[in-house]
Each structure stands twice: as C-alpha cells, then as structure tokens.
Specification:
The chain has about 325 residues and is of the alpha/beta class. It has two domains: about 140 residues, Aspartate/ornithine carbamoyltransferase (Rossmann fold), CATH 3.40.50.1370; about 150 residues, Aspartate/ornithine carbamoyltransferase (Rossmann fold). About 35% of the residues lie in helices and about 15% in strands. The chain has a five-stranded parallel β-sheet with strand order 7-6-5-8-9, sandwiched between helices. A four-stranded parallel β-sheet has the order 2-1-3-4. Strand 1, helix 2 and strand 2 form a beta-alpha-beta unit.
Length: about 325
C-alpha cells in the first residue's frame, strides 16, 4: 500500500490500520530528514498550504508550519482573531475566498466539533483536521502512537496504554482511543467519574477511577491537561472540588510512578500544567517522552501532508 484510503484527514476513525502504518513508515523517512544538517526536501514544492486556526494554538500550529516548510511548501497563516470572521463572514465564504487565491491544502483548527467534515463536504480542497472542538485531533493521536512505537517496539499487541485525566473534554483522548485500538493495544481511561464520558466502555476501553491501580495495569500513561476553558464556566473548576484535590488524587508524582514497580512510559500532549497533571520531576525524567512527542509531531505531520498531497494534480 503506497497511498491513503482517504482524501482528507478528518479524524482517526475513518482510517484503516494500513493507513496508520503507512503514515508511520513515511514518518520514519522524514524523521531522518529532520535530523540531517539540511532539513528540507522538495516534496511539496509549488504546493500552497493554508493554516486556518479559528482557535488558539501554539504547538500544533508551529508543528504544522514547520512540517510544511520542511517539505518546501508555500505557507499561508490565517488567524480568526484578525479576520473577517469577526465581521460575521461564514466559514465556507472565508475558506472559498482563500481558495480563490489558489490554495491546494487547508489545515484547520476550529472550536466546533464536525467543522472539518462540514468543510470537506462544501469546498473543493484537501482538509487536514488540526482539532475540532471536543471531537478529534488526529495528528496528535498519530504522533502519540508513533512515539510509543519508537520507545517500545513496533508491535502494539498486548501493550497497555492508559489515558488519564479530562477524558470528557479531550479530543486527544478520543483520537488516541481510535488509533490505539486499531493498532491492537489495550486502552484504559482513568480520572474522576465526572470527567469520564458515559458509555465510553462501548468503544472497547476499560475504566478506572484509581490512578494507583491504573499505573499497576499500564505500560504507557498519557497524562491529559485539565481543560477548564471547555467546561463552559470561564476557566472555573466545575467537575471536581479544586485543582489541588485533583492533583493529590490524579496527579502523577515520582512516588506514585515508583509505586508501579516497573518502568512506565510517561506522555503528555501539552501544554503541561506542572504540579497538576504531572510534577516537574516526572515531566523531566527519563521515563517521560514528552519532548520526543514534539519532535515526532513534525515528522508525522510531514508524512500526512506528503501522502495527502499525492492526490493533487500538478502541471
């Protein structure tokens, strides 16, 4: 298999296992590129990519922009805060106006779930979902799984991955669950009952409310950020008594990590709230692969852009 089965990357759910493995193999090649003295290849020369971010982002936007430039694409950055969206222009009109400037691909982050799918059905261009509300964040899940593959081995069979924290509001959690299950891993979610979605077991995951028990079960733990901005109350703690209490019960410390009695792999999609989800001692330890995730994010996004751009007809 040398091409993806999808035209767009809207989420992990539409991908096949073969699609994911192809992305990983391609990322392996680009990982070598970004570690060379000359870090660019001409793969997307004469291709123009627009980064449309209707929601604040630092890591994802910079990672995509760097991936595009490493592939020699022309890059256009769009911020909703300084655009005609503030004047009432619709999403379709905004994107169509941009496409009229001969844009080949759109990378979009949007606060509304389903926005990437909606756009793909209404405009004629390749869409890459960089996060849509609480729905999916496919490239984050791909880079997370790629990082696990790199640290452990290429076979996910019987690997146990725990996703810990704000599962309810996390698009990262949903995409990770889809991705890891497709690759054959076992997945457990852990957090306060108020942050675990109802019926999530129907996806094929197990549930735990005890961090200590989850650490004993897992090979890998992915610590999620508490997303106060998505709780609808102006960054006010709503689903548990306080951040301090959350940290005491679900924050990962060196002592809790040592209590697992085995060398767990620690992940975090960023940005880290040090002292809440993880302590600085854990985040900076040899067991953490957080900075590896950042580096791998560029290679994985290069792979996604390269594979999707192969559909574009060039003169």
């Amino acid at each position: 298999m040398s091409s993806l089965s999808v035209k767009h990357l809207l989420g992990i759910e539409p991908l096949t296992r073969e699609d994911i493995e192809l992305i990983f193999r391609t990322a392996d090649e680009f990982k070598e590129v970004i570690n060379r003295p000359i870090k660019k290849v001409p793969s997307l020369r004469d291709i123009t990519v627009a980064n449309l971010f209707f929601e604040n982002s630092t890591r994802t936007r910079l990672s995509f922009e760097l991936a595009e430039k490493r592939l020699s694409a022309d890059v256009v950055n769009f911020s909703a805060s300084s655009s005609s969206v503030k004047k009432g222009e619709t999403l379709i009109d905004t994107v169509n106006n941009i496409l009229a400037m001969k844009i080949d691909m759109v990378v979009m982050r949007h606060p509304d779930p389903g926005a990437a799918l909606f756009l793909s059905e209404n405009v004629n261009t390749i869409i890459v979902n960089a996060g849509d509300g609480t729905h999916e964040h496919p490239t984050q899940a791909l880079l997370d799984a790629y990082s696990i593959r790199e640290r452990l081995d290429e076979d996910f069979t019987d690997r146990r991955v725990a996703i810990i924290g704000d599962i309810l509001h996390s698009r990262v959690a949903l995409s990770n669950i889809h991705c890891l299950l497709k690759l054959g891993a076992e997945v457990q979610v852990c957090g306060p009952p108020t942050l675990i979605p109802k019926h999530i077991e129907s996806m094929g995951v197990s549930i735990s409310y005890s961090l200590e028990e989850t650490l004993m079960w897992a090979d890998v733990v992915n610590m999620l950020r508490i997303q106060l901005e998505r709780q609808g109350d102006g960054n006010v703690v709503k689903y548990f008594p306080s951040l301090r209490e959350y940290s005491m019960k679900y924050g990962l410390t060196a002592e809790k990590l040592a209590g697992a009695g085995k060398p767990l792999v620690v992940m975090h999609p960023g940005p880290i709230n040090r002292g809440v989800e993880v302590t600085s001692e854990v985040a900076d330890s040899n067991q953490a692969i957080i900075l590896d995730q950042v580096e791998n994010g560029v290679a994985v996004r290069m792979a996604v852009l390269y594979l999707l751009a192969s559909q574009i007809e060039r003169n």
